[in-house]
């Protein structure tokens, strides 16, 4: 008779919804089997909809899935991974509002935080993370990514936890252990050697220029003449271009380092045609740009996502169109080739001028040396010597 009552009582207990992660145990408690062991999360009678049980599961899951004992509830006031990531991203979003951080960089930080929450668990306490936790994280990242992305992500992870220390969310700096180190310089060189040179040869660039439409021709010439990348081309204002004298005065958008660049006659001619045939700007702030899409928007832009306005998405029409052109010409067989390869090409060939200071000035590189502190200007003749070296290499004249 007693056994019949237990069966009847058990049959009356149901999950709140089919996907609820816990089940009603015969003892009258919410339960879940983790690592071949039952764990309990309070009485069903006291929590019929399972709300409190689910909160406890979420709080303890990061520990239980690894076979570890969760900390007592009265010590749960420590900083969790979720709290750290929210605080870190809020600080970065404030920098976007102040114009000190680009949305693209914010997306990189967001992805890193999302990875930390996914790997460690959102309710995992930061002061509970150990060196073997970071070793496991690095192993997971190394399985997915190459050395360069692995190095950059490890750097961002360390930035997140340094933020925790700076903001007094934790009392002591993190102990990552020796395993959580970026790839060595040797590993990075090996990866780069295996990928091959990120460089266009003269015959490839000539094929690209011959096959490109007039707008893309102007963009490619800016890439090889000025060392411009995708964002440089997309953000180039007409006010920065002196077509009559053949010069561009335009700070690099990424670093705001000033650049003064002499233009080839071919670049001037194609750029003038592109500006004359440019569509009307959709937004007033884009009216001065040299290039726009057929809809009158920026060719490279970062905009809030419709599904989540706090996130951003990048649209790069220049990179997309150029990749399609490379595929049509069969020049995409080497890994890593794209429009940005033009900067690699300019840096490499421009260096043959034997004036690296002038090359760096055109590229817009940050020079933190003591020489840069004392250097007040670079003559136009030196800048022209660099671009003419690249021009002679390309056309042999």
Strand share of the residues? 5-15%
Instruction: Specify the overall morphology.
Output: elongated
Element-by-element helix/strand order? HEEEHHHHHHHHHEEEHEEHHHHH
In terms of per-residue confidence, which ranges show pLDDT below 50 for 5 or more consecutive residues?
6-11
Instruction: Tally the helices.
Output: 16
Secondary-structure-based class equals: mainly alpha
Provide a descriptive summary of the structure in words.
With 397 residues, this protein is mainly α. The protein folds into three domains: 11-70, no CATH class; 81-195, DNA polymerase, domain 1, CATH 1.10.150; 202-395, hpI Integrase, Chain A, CATH 1.10.443.10. It has 16 helices and eight strands. It has helices at 2-12, 51-64, 81-97, 103-120, 131-144, 147-166, 185-195, 202-211, 214-226, 230-235, 265-276, 317-329, 341-350, 356-363, 370-374, 380-395; strands at residues 23-24, 29-34, 37-43, 241-242, 247-249, 260-262, 300-304, 312-316. A three-stranded antiparallel sheet has the order 1-2-3, with helices on one face. Strands 4-5-6 form a three-stranded antiparallel sheet. A two-stranded antiparallel sheet has the order 7-8. The protein is elongated. The model is unreliable at 6-11 (pLDDT under 50).
């Amino acid at each position: 008779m007693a056994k019949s009552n237990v069966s009847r009582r058990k049959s009356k207990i149901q999950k709140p919804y089919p996907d609820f992660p816990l089940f009603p145990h015969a003892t009258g408690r919410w339960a879940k089997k983790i690592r071949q062991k039952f764990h309990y999360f309070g009485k069903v009678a006291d929590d019929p909809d399972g709300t409190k049980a689910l909160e406890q599961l979420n709080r303890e899951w990061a520990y239980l899935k690894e076979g570890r004992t969760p900390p007592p509830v009265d010590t749960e006031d420590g900083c969790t991974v979720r709290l750290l990531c929210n605080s870190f991203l809020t600080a970065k979003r404030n920098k976007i509002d102040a114009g000190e951080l680009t949305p693209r960089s914010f997306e990189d930080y967001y992805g890193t935080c999302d990875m930390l929450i996914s790997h460690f668990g959102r309710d995992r306490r930061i002061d509970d993370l150990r060196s073997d936790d970071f070793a496991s994280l690095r192993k997971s990242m190394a399985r997915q990514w190459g050395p360069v992305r692995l190095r950059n992500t490890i750097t961002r992870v360390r930035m997140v936890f340094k933020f925790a220390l700076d903001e007094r969310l934790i009392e002591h700096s993190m102990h990552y252990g020796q395993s959580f180190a970026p790839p060595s310089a040797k590993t990075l060189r090996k990866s780069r050697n295996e990928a091959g040179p990120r460089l266009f040869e003269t015959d490839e660039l000539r094929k690209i220029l011959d096959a490109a439409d007039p707008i893309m021709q102007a963009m490619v010439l800016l890439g090889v003449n000025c060392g411009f990348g995708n964002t440089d081309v997309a953000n180039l204002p007409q006010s920065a271009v002196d077509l009559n004298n053949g010069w561009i005065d335009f700070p690099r958008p990424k670093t705001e380092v000033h650049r003064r660049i002499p233009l080839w006659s071919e670049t001037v001619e194609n750029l003038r045609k592109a500006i004359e045939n440019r569509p009307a700007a959709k937004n007033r702030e884009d009216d001065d740009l040299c290039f726009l899409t057929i809809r009158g928007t920026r060719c490279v832009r970062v905009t809030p996502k419709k599904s989540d306005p706090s996130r951003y998405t990048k649209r790069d029409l220049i990179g997309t169109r150029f990749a399609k052109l490379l595929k049509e010409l069969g020049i995409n067989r080497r890994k890593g080739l794209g429009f940005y390869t033009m900067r690699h090409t300019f840096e490499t060939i421009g260096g043959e001028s034997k004036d690296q200071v002038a090359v760096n000035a055109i590229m817009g590189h940050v020079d933190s040396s003591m020489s840069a502190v004392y250097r007040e200007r670079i003559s136009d003749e030196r800048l022209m010597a660099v671009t003419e070296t690249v021009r002679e290499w390309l056309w042999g004249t």
